[in-house]
Amino acid sequence: MPMQMDTAIQYLPGVGPKRAALLGSELGIATVGDLLHVYPFRYIDRSSLQYIADLVPDQAYVQIRATVRKTRLYAKNGTELPADHVKYNMASRLSVIVGDATGELEVVFFKGIKWMHAKLKPDTTWIFFGKPSVFGSRINMVHPEVDPPEGEAGGSLTGIYPSTEKLKNGGITGKVMLKMVSTALNEVLPSLQDTLPDYVLKDKGLVPLTFALRQMHFPTTQDNLAKATYRMKFEELFLLQLSLLKQKYVRSRAANGIPMPGVGEAFNKCYHSLPYDLTGAQKRVIKEIREDLKSGSQMNRLLQGDVGSGKTMVAVLSALIAYGNGYQTCIMAPTEVLAQQHFANVQKYLAPTGVQVALLTGTTGVAARRKIHAGLLDGSIGILIGTHALIEDTVNFKALGLAVIDEQHRFGVEQRARLWSKGADGRPPHVLVMTATPIPRTLAMTLYGDLEVSIIDEMPPGRKPVQTICVGENKRHAMHNFIRDEVDKGRQAFIVYPMIFENEKMDYKNLELGYEEIVKAFPLPKYKVAIVHGKQTPQEKEFNMSAFAAGRANILVSTTVIEVGVDVPNASVMVIESAERFGLSQLHQLRGRVGRGAERSFCILMRGAKVSKDSQKRLDLMCATENGFEIAEEDMKLRGPGDLEGTQQSGLPIELNIASLAKDGLILSDARAYATKVLDADPTLSFPVNAPLAAELRRDKYTVKDYSGIS
Ligand code: ADP
Ligand code: MG
Fold first, then answer.
1. Do 6 and 65 share a domain, yes or no?
2. Whose CA is nearest to atom 13 of ligand 1?
3. 32 & 60 share domain
4. What count of Cα atoms within 13 Å lies in the side-chain half-sphere of residue 248?
5. Of 83, 325, 415, 447, which sits with the fewest C-beta atoms within 10 Å of its C-beta?
6. In a domain, 633, yes or no
7. Is the separation of the CB atoms in 566 and 545 below 8 Å?
8. 518 Cα to the center of ligand 2, angstroms
9. Are residues 96 and 65 in the same domain?
10. Average pLDDT over every residue of 408-431
11. Is 655 inside any structural domain?
């Protein structure tokens, strides 16, 4: 019987139990199919080898075939170490002179010195793949990939597979991988069914799976490799979108949503008494929500909008739609200060409507709490604003219809279930999650593929741009003077310090020293400086934060605890210390804390002495733009989607094998549009022609976690 994709890898000729175990532990390969889905991460193209004499600095990646002439080890202080009794832990640089027929080049390593030193023996020949750069007056190559010149006799492109020392020691070299893959292809391809139906291949102009797999491993031309890569990426993203959208279809067809057919009088009253016109984006989003609420299905909508884009108003108007249909709303904020702020604002907006709002937090007294509980049960309270306290079991509603969750609370399953169970008539409330962390569209589609996403991409008029500059330590004194000018004009300033778990001790020290310095520069009684950090009790934090929010303190020194939403319109300066240590979206969030009032605002990025190229790019971008989505896209390109802040906890719903969210946004949009089309025709994928798709979605990889609730 021929082998199948799901045959255990150990039965592949030439593998056996020992190698199978290694392949499993090192590369996660359990089946023949797994092996065929480990693609080379690079291909050596013999025709593209360059000569050393032709290299110029700052070229893109190049490949040279060169022989090791001499290796030298250097200590940190620059002295050369003897190579015969090497103390590797003293060596901080390995310099390798390599040469080909046209010249010589220095190759340099700062890491993995021991391993490279043992590998790059004089007179051995290797393929070096890297970026030429200039050092002094010479060209060198730092940390190139080093591959044996094996496989040269094969096709014109030879795949290089991911490898580890264990694999190599276990005899699974690049050559062996190529042999195994070749065997697997010959075994499996003759009887392999395509994972995509013919009509999909035709519609999207994709090459068949058998062709694609062979080309991924043994490409005959660059063009064929590109076609194969495209097909595999499209397939991956298409199946992912298909699985997410299918869940959404199932939910939207289940008529379990609380019906809210009208808008009602309160909505209209509030709308017509607004002190300003809604922005086009706010209007559009409210319309989207309105459509959801009357659809008969449960709404699950993520509202993204930059800091200050006016999300609160959207929440209020949505709550009034619920109210107009006889339902209550709860609005949940992540902190007490924020809940208070919402409460004050919402009360103001609701004054003309007569709708009653209540505030419930951890510090609400017993008597007040009892009154709120009663008001919620008899329906006299229309909107409840609060912190986590409002999902406690003792809080029950007469008819909860909408839950608004500000700043993307992360709920556990249990908490989510509690919120669900509070819905009217045993139905889950509609859910609106609001976040100011701009998630690039491509990532949102993947992370929240089964949620609707609304975006407010327009700022209310009158918001002044925040002037951002990046300066070094030599400008610290000037920075103090600048703050003093602003404070003397009656404004307030934030000074934020990085706080990273691994470096906590040092970070607290810096924060403390920074605080002392500021207190000295801004002495009592004329100035007042508040401080907020993670080691304080919640009460201390609240106390200091509210002192600043209420204008009793001129300066707030803090760690990033202020990241989430406080509104202090009078603050006009944001100083970020060691700015290079923050991620882009974090910097953007912090900067969004200023520029909310009538005054011109400033963001000062204090740069440390040593800043990497990538960090400098981030700082430059901050100075160049205030557009959160632009920043988020760049962030993803610089860091890769897995590292995006706010997404680490949630992780991606699936692991992508070949497609990249940062680079393949266009394929993703196309795949999503096409998946929608396929599901429109066959929502349950039960047509015989779609059988291959249905079968693929049953695989582990595509049984994605349910993100329909609030993650
Ligand atoms: P965020 O999206 O960060 O939650 P807010 O809802 O707090 O933003 O709004 C920021 C500020 O902008 C508030 O002071 C609010 O009153 C004001 N605002 C909201 N919408 C508009 C608008 N359409 N025109 C003018 N100001 C607005
Ligand atoms: Mg807000």
1. no
2. 310
3. no
4. 23
5. 83
6. no
7. yes
8. 29
9. yes
10. 75
11. no
Taking the centre of ligand 2 as the mean of its atom positions, its distance from the CA of residue 310, in whole angstroms, is 7
Residue 136, domain CATH:
2.40.50.140
Rg of the chain's alpha carbons, rounded to an integer? 30
| Average pLDDT over every residue of 358-362 | 93
Task: Tell me what percent of the chain is helix, strand and coil, each rounded to the nearest 5.
Answer: 45, 20, 35
What is the rounded CA–CA span in Å between residue 262 and residue 522? 56
pLDDT in tens, 174-217: 889 999 999 999 999 999 999 999 999 999 999 999 999 999 99
User: What range does the domain containing 8 cover?
Assistant: 1-43+165-192
3-state SS record for 598-666: CCCEEEEEECCCCCCHHHHHHHHHHHHCCCHHHHHHHHHHHHCHHHCCCCCCCCCCCCCCCCCCCCCHH
What pLDDT score does 109 carry?
A: 93
Mean pLDDT, the chain, rounded, equals 86
Quick one: 363 and 427 in the same domain?
yes
pLDDT by residue (tens digit) across 437-473? 767 666 776 666 667 788 888 888 877 789 999 999 9
Q: Which of 378, 376, 410 is nearest to 390 (CA)?
A: 376
pTM greater than the 0.85 cutoff: no
pLDDT at position 150: 64
Ligand located closest to 344 CA:
1
- CATH number of the domain bearing residue 584: 3.40.50.300
Does the beta carbon of 278 sit less than 6 angstroms from any atom of ligand 1? yes
How remote is the CA of residue 436 from the centroid of ligand 1, in Å? 13
pLDDT at 394: 87
- Clarify whether residues 376 and 499 are in a common domain: no
4 belongs to a structural domain: yes
**pLDDT exceeds cutoff 90 at 18:** yes
What is the best residue among 271, 311, 312 to mutate for testing ligand 1's pocket, by most ligand atoms within 8 Å of CB?
Answer: 312
Which of 579, 600, 625 marks a domain boundary? Answer: 625
Instruction: Pick the last residue of a domain from 153, 182, 202.
Output: 153
- Shared domain for 52 and 9, answered yes or no, is no
| Ligand nearest, relative to CA of residue 628 | 1
pLDDT at 307: 77
Is position 566 within any domain? yes
Number of domains in the chain: 4
pLDDT digits (tens, 9 = 90+) for 533-580: 888 887 888 888 889 989 999 999 998 765 545 778 899 999 999 999
Q: Environment class of residue 680 by beta-carbon count within 10 Å: exposed (0-12), middle (13-18) or buried (19+)?
A: exposed
